[in-house]
Amino acid sequence: MATINDNYLKLKAGYLFPEIARRVNTFTQLNPNAPIIKLGIGDVTEPLPEACRIAMIQAVEEMGNHSSFRGYGPEQGYTWLREKVAAQDFQLRGCDIDASEIFVSDGSKCDTGNILDIFGKNNTVAVTNPVYPVYVDTNVMAGNTGVGNDDGSYEGLVYIPISTENNFTPAIPAQKVDLIYLCFPNNPTGAVATKENLQVWVDYARANESIIFFDAAYEAFITNPTIPHSIYEIPGAKNCAIEFRSFSKNAGFTGTRCALTIVPKALKVKAADDSYVELWKLWNRRQSTKFNGVSYIVQRGAEAVYSEAGKEQIKLLVNFYLENARIIREKLTTAGLQVYGGINAPYVWVKTPHGLSSWDFFDELLQNVNVVGTPGSGFGSAGEGYFRISAFNSRRNVEEAMKRITNKFKV
Ligand SMILES: *Cc1c(COP(=O)(O)O)cnc(C)c1O
């Protein structure tokens, strides 16, 4: 008799985005002409940079000739891409990361889940609250948690609150933790971590032989020059941290798919026989066995991100979204709302007015001004009373949405 991975049955039905869709559908059925503007989902809206398109078109042509056709590439990614990443994303920032420590993949979402393949089942796992739901659900699937609670949390996970009370800085929990997910600039709050904040975690991880999973998907949005772009800017991080990067948000690759996972060779974890094992070897083995690499065409597109033209185009793209975020912050502040984030990140985290719940505020905005955002409580219990507004949209939509909110939604 076949059996299933019963851990999947512990998962609470994907609640947040289906529930948003349900409420929007109900509303549009009653109000078919309502001019709804969606500032909810974290997907980019602007087209691919020209440098990336030119590189991919050329790569497609190469695939059409015997002399330049490519079959399977290296599972870890092509050296020409890994070397550019090592030089420009890391060595230029003083991070001693070698091309061989960079693994090219088809997404950070999958890698943040896949990484659990090389870790044991007895690790205590810590996430922030609110949190990117992928970290939580992949741990449920891997059997690293107990049952789910009504508020969307799971037994056995350690939740570290990030809120206005601690300036969105996750504190070391009382309980010892082995695996820690940190995402900065943060989705959903738009908060950033200083070097000092991250040093505390690196010191903790080294003292406790813990591993930090550092998700830097939004590093390109950092405008404050003192904020670190990589955890490897922190002394000691090479001994305790894996970093995830993605071309999704800086270069608009959400539909093109390319990302990076950095596993330093200095990273060692104890095996059952008490010997220390290089995580690099395990991840390399895992990728070589279960993954056959990212398409040549897409890797050429990603490589173009590091060209002079590419860098310029990406800066324009990021600045476009950051200007949206600035407009959102300014208009919502004018409307009397308390806003956070949106300076080094494409997300603005809004305190709901009059003590409204996240979902009540969602309904108010939907019904009064036909603007859709994301209720903070969907990212965890500590997100209750907050609301996420995404800067990923056209300037016109952002300006129109903010006009409606300032006109009608005076606090
Ligand atoms: C968008 C996003 C990513 C990127 O995921 P991809 O699979 O590379 O598109 C990673 N982490 C967070 C927190 C994100 O919001």
UniProtKB/TrEMBL annotation:
<feature type="binding site">
    <location>
        <begin position="246"/>
        <end position="248"/>
    </location>
    <ligand>
        <name>pyridoxal 5'-phosphate</name>
    </ligand>
</feature>
<feature type="binding site">
    <location>
        <position position="292"/>
    </location>
    <ligand>
        <name>substrate</name>
    </ligand>
</feature>
<feature type="binding site">
    <location>
        <position position="132"/>
    </location>
    <ligand>
        <name>substrate</name>
    </ligand>
</feature>
<dbReference type="InterPro" id="IPR019942">
    <property type="entry name" value="DapL/ALD1"/>
</dbReference>
<feature type="binding site">
    <location>
        <position position="218"/>
    </location>
    <ligand>
        <name>pyridoxal 5'-phosphate</name>
    </ligand>
</feature>
<feature type="binding site">
    <location>
        <begin position="108"/>
        <end position="109"/>
    </location>
    <ligand>
        <name>pyridoxal 5'-phosphate</name>
    </ligand>
</feature>
<keyword id="KW-0808">Transferase</keyword>
<feature type="binding site">
    <location>
        <position position="388"/>
    </location>
    <ligand>
        <name>substrate</name>
    </ligand>
</feature>
<dbReference type="InterPro" id="IPR015424">
    <property type="entry name" value="PyrdxlP-dep_Trfase"/>
</dbReference>
<dbReference type="Pfam" id="PF00155">
    <property type="entry name" value="Aminotran_1_2"/>
</dbReference>
<feature type="binding site">
    <location>
        <position position="15"/>
    </location>
    <ligand>
        <name>substrate</name>
    </ligand>
</feature>
<protein>
    <recommendedName>
        <fullName>LL-diaminopimelate aminotransferase</fullName>
        <ecNumber>2.6.1.83</ecNumber>
    </recommendedName>
</protein>
<dbReference type="GO" id="GO:0010285">
    <property type="term" value="F:L,L-diaminopimelate aminotransferase activity"/>
</dbReference>
<comment type="pathway">
    <text>Amino-acid biosynthesis; L-lysine biosynthesis via DAP pathway; LL-2,6-diaminopimelate from (S)-tetrahydrodipicolinate (aminotransferase route): step 1/1.</text>
</comment>
<feature type="modified residue" description="N6-(pyridoxal phosphate)lysine">
    <location>
        <position position="249"/>
    </location>
</feature>
<feature type="binding site">
    <location>
        <position position="109"/>
    </location>
    <ligand>
        <name>substrate</name>
    </ligand>
</feature>
<comment type="similarity">
    <text>Belongs to the class-I pyridoxal-phosphate-dependent aminotransferase family. LL-diaminopimelate aminotransferase subfamily.</text>
</comment>
<comment type="subunit">
    <text>Homodimer.</text>
</comment>
<comment type="function">
    <text>Involved in the synthesis of meso-diaminopimelate (m-DAP or DL-DAP), required for both lysine and peptidoglycan biosynthesis. Catalyzes the direct conversion of tetrahydrodipicolinate to LL-diaminopimelate.</text>
</comment>
<feature type="binding site">
    <location>
        <position position="257"/>
    </location>
    <ligand>
        <name>pyridoxal 5'-phosphate</name>
    </ligand>
</feature>
<feature type="domain" description="Aminotransferase class I/classII large">
    <location>
        <begin position="35"/>
        <end position="405"/>
    </location>
</feature>
<feature type="binding site">
    <location>
        <position position="292"/>
    </location>
    <ligand>
        <name>pyridoxal 5'-phosphate</name>
    </ligand>
</feature>
<feature type="binding site">
    <location>
        <position position="187"/>
    </location>
    <ligand>
        <name>pyridoxal 5'-phosphate</name>
    </ligand>
</feature>
<keyword id="KW-0032">Aminotransferase</keyword>
<feature type="binding site">
    <location>
        <position position="42"/>
    </location>
    <ligand>
        <name>substrate</name>
    </ligand>
</feature>
<dbReference type="GO" id="GO:0033362">
    <property type="term" value="P:lysine biosynthetic process via diaminopimelate, diaminopimelate-aminotransferase pathway"/>
</dbReference>
<keyword id="KW-0663">Pyridoxal phosphate</keyword>
<feature type="binding site">
    <location>
        <position position="187"/>
    </location>
    <ligand>
        <name>substrate</name>
    </ligand>
</feature>
<dbReference type="InterPro" id="IPR015422">
    <property type="entry name" value="PyrdxlP-dep_Trfase_small"/>
</dbReference>
<feature type="binding site">
    <location>
        <position position="72"/>
    </location>
    <ligand>
        <name>pyridoxal 5'-phosphate</name>
    </ligand>
</feature>
<dbReference type="InterPro" id="IPR015421">
    <property type="entry name" value="PyrdxlP-dep_Trfase_major"/>
</dbReference>
<dbReference type="GO" id="GO:0030170">
    <property type="term" value="F:pyridoxal phosphate binding"/>
</dbReference>
<feature type="binding site">
    <location>
        <position position="132"/>
    </location>
    <ligand>
        <name>pyridoxal 5'-phosphate</name>
    </ligand>
</feature>
<dbReference type="InterPro" id="IPR004839">
    <property type="entry name" value="Aminotransferase_I/II_large"/>
</dbReference>
